[in-house]
Amino acid sequence: MPYWSLYLQGQGFSYLQIATLMATIQLTKIVAPSVWGWLGDRSGQRVRLVRFGAITGSLFFAGVFLEPGFWGLLLVMLAFTFFWNAILPLYEVITLRTLGKRKEKYGKVRLWGSVGFIGAVGLIGGLLEWVPIQSLPWLLMPVFAGIAVSAFLVPSEKGERKPLAPKGSLKAIVTHPSVVAFFLMNFLLQVSHGAYYTFFSIHLEQHGYGKLAIGLLWSLGVIAEIGLFLVMHRVSRRFTVRQIAIGALILTMIRWVLIAELTAVLPILLFAQLLHAASYGALHAVSVQYIQGFFGKHHHGQGQALYSGLTFGAGGALGAWLSGFLVDGFSTSAAFWGSAVAMAIATLITWRKLQPPPEEPAEA
């Protein structure tokens, strides 16, 4: 993510084309998690599906080397991300099933995803100081190969099928005003992140930052996110989930304004990246509690799929696309101002409509 927009820029694509291509990464999240989650539940063969997704996704990604032009690359990325976005949700279920009653250890396992991200952006950022950005796909292929190999090191499951959950009143849950407000909040949150995931690296490069510095700045945000997760239990004891959500939304709005106007001032930019703890960490942790509280155990999976599809998928794709228009018509700074406006609207909706989730998970 930190370098792909720079690679697309190096290939000669316009800002709007870059935004459209980056949007496909989020677009397939609308359907892929639900499709692959359903297949995993029905077959019980999640490990095999992960292996299939890792190999097939890597093969489709190799289409990048054909340099197929805009429309060809759009198809390559749609196909690649459809399989790629299947891997993480399936691995989440595999990990939780493997841990069994030791679910408190999940955070320690998931932590390695953040460590891997930090290591990858640092290493690849350093390499891109020595080799041209056009070499990025060649740097990524060994990573994809490693993921495919590691998937075969995970023991296969027994193939038990998950019993169908009772139908219940999913419609009543989804149409509840607080649930609608919750999804609107997260949809706008991901709309606001569209400029960040699509143009943050280009924005930094325009302000004179090198590839390694760009990677380190991305990593700083993830480090802040890890730090927040480590102390989130203490924050949750002092504030309600609604208070945390509103506070995090305001901090996210401030973050986008700082990036829009004061990127050249390094101490302020570092502070803005530390606010990733609020932009992603706090709001994601709160959202997990809301989904569990509103959807209960019988509809938890469907709630997670809606959360992923409507927010990260639809919101992220729309945000990336809209940011392309703002960058193409004005500047990268204008795109981050657009993100701040989205956060102002989200804060207002959350303040007026969002209520705390039930203390006990719903049984509907």
Automatic annotation (TrEMBL):
Main location: membrane
A Pfam family annotated for this UniProt entry: MFS_1_like
Top-level taxon in the UniProt lineage: Bacteria
Record keywords, A-Z: Cell inner membrane, Cell membrane, Membrane, Transmembrane, Transmembrane helix, Transport
Spans traversing the lipid bilayer: 12-37, 49-66, 72-91, 111-130, 136-156, 168-189, 209-232, 264-283, 304-322, 334-351
Record membrane topology: Multi-pass membrane protein
Subcellular location: Cell inner membrane
Provenance organism: Marinobacter persicus
Name listed for the protein in its UniProt record: PPP family 3-phenylpropionic acid transporter
UniProt domain Major facilitator superfamily (MFS) profile: residue ranges: 178-364
InterPro entries for this protein: HcaT-like, MFS_assoc_dom, MFS_dom, MFS_trans_sf
NCBIfam families from the UniProt entry: mfs (NF037955)
Single GO MF descriptor: lactose binding
This protein's GO CC annotations: plasma membrane
